[in-house]
Amino acid sequence: MNSSFFPYWCILLDPSGLIIETNLPLESWRQNPLSYFLHGTEKIQGEKGSAVLSWQPGKSPISFPGNTGLLASWSLTHGMFWIKMEPMEEDSASLIENSFWKEFLSSDRPFRQIFETNQAIKWILDPDSGDILYANQAASQFYGYSQEELLRMKVTDINTLTKEQIFEEMRLAAFEARQYFRFRHKLKSGELRDMEVYSGPLQFGGKRVLFSILYDVTARVKAISLLEESERKYRSLVESASDSIIITNFETKIFEANRRMAELLEYSKEELQTFTLEDILDKESFADSLIRIPTLEISKPVILNRRFISKSGKIIEAEVNAARIDEFRYMGIVRDVTERNSMTRTLEKSLREKESMLQEIHHRVKNNLQVISSLLGLQYENTEDPNLKRILKECENRVKSMGFVHAELYRSENFAAVDLENYFTTVSSNLIRAYGGLPRVLLQLDLSSLEVSIEKAIPLGLILNELLTNSLKYAFPGDRSGKIQIRIFREEQNIVFSYSDDGIGFKKENHTGSGTIGIQLIEILSRQLKGNSEFTSENGVVFRLRIPGRNPGK
């Protein structure tokens, strides 16, 4: 076989280790034993020599250095051993001198492949000296050192802990007291990185070493730091809040409660964090919370009324502003409204009592006016003088119109206001009945449902009484038919009362003189209402009154 055609130096050996052929320029090596050009003769003739002579097909090539700075790879072909000799760099040559490297390079191929092909950072350390015995390509790329540089370094050159601390950590890993570590490592550039290290002992070549897998967690550490800072600020805000705050999970377990919440319920914060909502709410409030909590949404608070039970058994009525704050937690801002609710109940009770009393007053006033009206009616029946009878009837109708206001208020739930639609309808109907119905006169009502105070309702009722009485008595003499129109409506901020009939109208002296008390009463009442009135009577009566119309309180 002519080995001169091979592009690398090669040597062919027989099974005894003698050189059969070589393409090396030193022909004098022919027929010399292998130990002639390989240094460390005894070790090679012992370990490596036996390894060569016992080498079988299928095994990986065996590599070791020669005294000429060559890297030799063994293989078996047709019963002969081939040694492939390739030049190597000075650093590589010095690394091969490392006995660990020689053992590692001759180790199982799958083990080496795991080291080299996996992207995780891995290295092997000597726990006694701190030497980096092996580092994979991923470690080289991460730290910025070549593999050769790393293998001349100690772990103390990279780890920022003190030498004593590092060796204590390696001791714990070597004896399997711990497997997980957190360190800060310095890269070649000087940058510091946070590392998670999983390390454990490994027997290699009869020696205990540390096999470590390292992960860069700098980004995660920064994110956690920011999150922790945010959490600290959040907790500070919660703790310093003037309101009571409680935070629970989906199952109502209390995660956190601030100082104000603890004071409100008379527990310590630590005690509250061992509770669920069931321990601090009454049954009805807790049952409703079980229903409402799953429906809460992030940034969409709802107001809930709850009854808390303090450590001493006191019932605390609270208004809770509740919302979900993240995927697992719910926050409630709790405001004690026990005193407010108590005051509200007291006020409501007082109001009911006053309403009842006011209702009774209106009822009694109505009854008293009805008595007066009845007395005037009796007097009317027992009087023969036509003028006196007319006066008594007019007085009776005026008293009745005032009584209708109190009757309306007595039936109403709102004692502050009178519905003019109902009130005017009642006054008009009463007067029509009082004067015998007058079927030839058409009464048209166009009344908006407006509410006014009793101070406005009574004067308006009396004005209507005077106008309608006058029309029924004088506007349609004999068999004259006609129409009476009554309107009330809102015009901007005013209430407008409009009255008209198409009767014979008034004489001028009746409108301006002192002989008609009804006209004088209308003018007095219009001024009392602070209204602007217009009154004409040439072709029937036309009256228009505009008064301020703010809505009364309810």
From TrEMBL:
Assigned keywords, A-Z: ATP-binding, Kinase, Nucleotide-binding, Phosphoprotein, Transferase
SMART domains for this protein: HATPase_c, PAS
Residue stretches making up the Histidine kinase domain: 360-551
An annotated GO BP: regulation of DNA-templated transcription
Keyword set includes Nucleotide-binding: yes
All residue ranges annotated as the PAS domain in the record: 107-151, 230-272
SUPFAM superfamilies to which the protein is assigned, alphabetical: ATPase domain of HSP90 chaperone/DNA topoisomerase II/histidine kinase, PYP-like sensor domain (PAS domain)
EC number: 2.7.13.3
Short name of any one Pfam family annotated for the protein: PAS_9
Alphabetical list of PROSITE patterns matching this protein: HIS_KIN, PAS
Signal peptide per UniProt: none
CDD domains: PAS (cd00130)
Molecular functions (GO terms): ATP binding; protein histidine kinase activity
InterPro entries: HATPase_C_sf, HATPase_dom, His_kinase_dom, PAS, PAS-like_dom_sf, PAS_fold, Sig_transdc_His_kin_sub2_dim/P
Reaction catalysed by this enzyme: ATP + protein L-histidine = ADP + protein N-phospho-L-histidine
PANTHER family noted in UniProt: ETHYLENE RESPONSE SENSOR PROTEIN, TWO-COMPONENT SYSTEM SENSOR PROTEIN
Protein name: histidine kinase
